Amino acid sequence: MSHSASDPVPPSPPAIELVGLTKRYGDTVAVDGLDLTVHPGETLALLGPNGAGKTTTVECCEGYRIPDAGQVRVLGLDPRRDGRRLRPRLGLMLQEGGVYPLARPREVLHLFARFHAEPADPDDLLERVGLAEADRTRFRDLSGGQKQRLSLALALVGRPEIVFLDEPTAGLDPAARRMTWEHVRELQADGVTVVLTTHLLDEAEELADRVAIIDRGRLIALGTPDELTHADREELTFSARPGLDTESLSAALEVPAVELRPGRYVVHGENAPRLISRLAGWLEEHDVRLGELQAAKRSLEQVYLGLTEDASAPSGGDPSVEAARREVEA
Amino acid sequence: MSSDLHGADAPAPRPDPPARARRGTPLLGAILAQAGMELRLLFRSPESLLVTLGIPVGVLVFFSVVDVLPTGDERAVDFLVPGVIAISVAATGLVAVAIQTAFERKYGVLKRLGGTPLPRAGYLAAKGVAVAATLTIQLLLIVVLALTVLDWRPAGGALVLPVAVLVGAISHTAIGLLLAGSLRAEATLAVTNGLFLVLLVISGVTFDPAALPDALAAVGRVLPTGALAEVVRVGASGGGLAVGSLAVLAGWGAAAIGVASRSFRWEP
Predict the structure, then answer these.
(1) pLDDT at position B159 over 80
(2) How many domains are contained in chain B?
(3) By CB atoms within 10 Å of each CB, which of A157, A213, B87, B151 scores lowest?
(4) pLDDT reading at B11 higher than 70
(5) pLDDT at A258 over 50
């Protein structure tokens, strides 16, 4: 997935550059001063809970939204002003289907192919996304997964330089998810820049070169999956009887120990073997039987949950951004 | 956290993106493909076929054969054909376009198309091509049917008819798009069907408006469909171009285009 640091970095201009991107819907701030750069050929995952501002961010790049403040550059162009020049180079997959209910997959794909000077072969693409057999089915009668796959094919048929995938695997069964991931990997191998939004951690970890964690319109973490799960942030989880004196334990371990829920404890520290030996000593001293013990690198999930929980703790009241958007634009 | 935010440089990118030769949009081909799609979908929808072909032809045949409507001193068919031509234009330009476009907006089709290289003007041009093709089929069917089976004998209008239909189609399509771009799809459906019924009754397209109260008849004449019927009827009876009614018709179109260009919403 990610490349070794010794690879030379060519001085190519960024595929996408966001500077202080801000977008409000009425009183709701959907995106709040976002700075983000996506490099050519890179796959960036925008990860965050629902209503975090992922879709709004992507739609500002696609030219659907006018930012209230800040700058958006996609392939060096302004998505609103230079849309005519930009759109032939982009491939979009929106969250909602956006296809004529009575149209059939093959004819829609052929239609979109006609919008491009040098499209991919629609029939071949239909085959590759596994829709050849659903060829005669009208869009409204396709399954949710088939609709998603057609949507993906529509994003790819123009052989784009940048592909935006908004929740590309939402509602897909595991096999269809795998297939979508395979398509993303093919894009990566072709040097295509991919921006995908997801709230699925494994998807971000699996596909992305870098993950941008967004919450309440703010960028709260950015890095490769490895960086975010930092090797020096090891942790120890163990189970024992509830109500241990974690203060005494923390003192003995010289790092904080926390009771996550009754009988379940977590210790963050750097040197797992030393922690284990001290933990074992403390448990013996206090005559506590040890249940499970696990030493692991932090998972992206723990990073993500930790970050988004912190961020959502203080200010109360989170009106859905999407609802606010509809209200404002109605 | 700040080191995570700003310190993380991107990994080295993958090999350079493949060079792309031509990135332009084949505009004419795109418009024709889009128009072809719209036409196919129109003919795939029984409701649309009923409105665009069933009702006009049904009205023409039924009331030509069964003499129940007051049509003044003229033969029923001579009165009816111009009215049915106006109904056809209203059915295709206003009703079918409004409903089809409103649901395209509701289902996000307009938004999705907006993200393709097909420009909005190209989309509207495709809509125009589809309307023109549908109207050509309708009018050929009606005129041939009237001339051969129903023994229609117009005294003129070969030049007036195309002008009237062109202006009428633009005006009615503009009103249809105005509704589709401002109302919810369900509201558009209700409003256009109601409007169609009102136009049928008070615009003097199916019977002599002299049978209506004067005030109602006057309203009917200044509505776009009534004005169009008047232009066609005067032309077909050898009276040349009814400039006043044509101006009313064009006025509706200009107003609808003016409002729609400001208020049209492309997103659901």
Answers:
(1) yes
(2) 1
(3) B151
(4) no
(5) yes
pTM of the model: 0.81
Minimal CA separation from A106 to chain B, in Å: 12
Closest CA to B86 of B252, B238, B210: B252
Q: Output B136 or B218, whichever has higher pLDDT.
A: B136
- Is A9 close to B1, i.e. CB distance below 8 A? no
In a domain, B76, yes or no: yes
| pLDDT tens digits along A37-56 | 999 999 999 998 888 899 99
Angle at A119 between CA A44 and CA A151, to 5 degrees: 55
Residue B218: inside a domain, yes or no?
A: yes
- Which of B:36-65 have CB within 8 Å of A? 37, 40-41, 44-45
Q: Which domains are seen in chain A, by residue range?
A: 16-228 (3.40.50.300), 234-297 (3.30.70.100)
> Which residue spans within chain B are E strands per DSSP?
none
Mean pLDDT of B174-183: 96
Contacts of B134 (CB under 8 A, 6+ apart): B39, B42, B52, B92, B96
Structural domain contains residue B13: no
Structural domain includes residue B94: yes
Contact criterion met (CB below 8 Å) for A55 and A69: no
Q: Is the model's pLDDT at A312 over the cut of 50? A: no
Q: Measure the CA–CA gap between B188 and B105, rounded to whole angstroms.
A: 11
What residues make up the domain containing B154? 28-263
CA torsion sign for A158, A159, A161, A165 is positive
Check: CB of residue A112 under 8 Å from CB of residue A120: no
- Say yes or no: B19 contacts chain A, CB-CB below 8 A: no
